């Protein structure tokens, strides 16, 4: 760990000409992206465009079909299982389907990474957990069972759990989903203040143009299987690219596809359905 932190690389996360997908299906190609310490980088794009896939590549859950994914300067595709594990310890992840442990209460869910990865005593654990729950407005919900909290509250507990270790790189997959406007604004400010206070690098996957443009340093827009646009919120807002403008304005008509594209696998399934009915 000391060897890794002493040579802290310039980029917490770097993608170099990366292609990503599943089996022989390629979701995204030719993606290059940099995330530095202290930066909030927003990744936006339509549903199914490959945002979560990108996050899976950053954590080493999937390997790139082409190109390199560097986490803290190390090529995660060439790393051993142990090396991937130690890189993962330096990341906090808020998964899109971030399930909480239903047999643990709110407090124990947030305490879990601390108990797994640190030797903090109970007093420090309590202080750190209540501090993070306070940041998401749920200090007084610490004792509740997971079955006793709402969907939006569960998202905020998962967020507190993702940041409790104060990691160097935090990956947020749809942190605003299911939040009311006030919680959403507070969560956005929390993401920004964690980046500023801890100097951590943040990747923010979201559909929320307004909030992400308010807090992001860089925005990457993915679509049509590639990087559709990248730049600061100001440059993207001023872009006259019809794809960028349609996405930012949420207009129904334009180059951004709404329908999931038809694949040979779908055609095969459909003809089997029809044959069964005939
Ligand atoms: N485990 C998997 N195996 C095969 N295909 C997958 C798998 N996970 C996702 N896909 C496909 O990869 C594409 C991108 O999915 P992904 O989850 O990355 O999209 P997304 O941009 O995160 O969408 P959303 O905004 O809806 O969360 C989709 O076509 C999806 O069907
Ligand atoms: Mg997703």
Automatic annotation (TrEMBL):
GO molecular function, one term: ATP binding
Keywords: ATP-binding, Cell membrane, Membrane, Nucleotide-binding, Transport
The keyword tRNA-binding is annotated on this UniProt entry: no
Domain ABC transporter: 13-249
Ranges that cross the membrane: none
Domain of life: Bacteria
InterPro entries linked: AAA+_ATPase, ABC_transporter-like_ATP-bd, ABC_transporter-like_CS, P-loop_NTPase
Pfam families: ABC_tran
Protein name according to UniProt: Putative ABC transporter, ATP-binding protein
Organism: Achromobacter arsenitoxydans SY8
């Amino acid at each position: 760990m000391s060897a890794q932190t002493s040579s802290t690389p310039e980029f917490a996360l770097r993608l170099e000409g990366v292609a990503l997908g599943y089996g022989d299906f390629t979701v995204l190609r030719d993606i290059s992206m940099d995330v530095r310490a202290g930066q909030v980088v927003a990744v936006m794009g339509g549903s199914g465009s490959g945002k979560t896939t990108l996050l899976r590549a950053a954590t080493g859950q999937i390997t790139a079909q082409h190109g390199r994914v560097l986490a803290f300067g190390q090529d995660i595709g060439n790393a051993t299982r142990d090396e991937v594990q130690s890189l993962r310890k330096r990341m906090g992840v808020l998964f899109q389907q971030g399930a909480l442990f239903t047999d643990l209460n709110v407090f124990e869910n947030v305490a879990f990474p601390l108990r797994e990865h640190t030797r903090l005593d109970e007093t420090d654990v309590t202080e750190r957990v209540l501090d993070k729950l306070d940041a998401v407005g749920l200090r007084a919900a610490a004792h509740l069972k997971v079955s006793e909290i709402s969907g939006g509250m569960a998202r905020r507990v998962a967020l507190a759990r993702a940041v409790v270790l104060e990691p160097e790189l935090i990956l947020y997959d749809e942190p605003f989903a299911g939040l009311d406007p006030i919680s959403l604004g507070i969560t956005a400010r929390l993401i920004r203040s964690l980046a500023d206070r801890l100097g951590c690098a943040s990747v923010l996957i979201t559909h929320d143009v307004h909030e992400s443009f308010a807090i992001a340093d860089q925005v990457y827009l993915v679509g049509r299987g590639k990087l559709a646009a990248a730049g600061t919120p100001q440059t993207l807002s001023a872009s006259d690219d019809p794809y960028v403008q349609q996405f930012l304005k949420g207009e129904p008509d334009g180059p951004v596809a709404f329908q999931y594209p038809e694949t040979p696998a779908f055609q095969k399934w459909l003809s089997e359905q029809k044959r069964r009915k005939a």
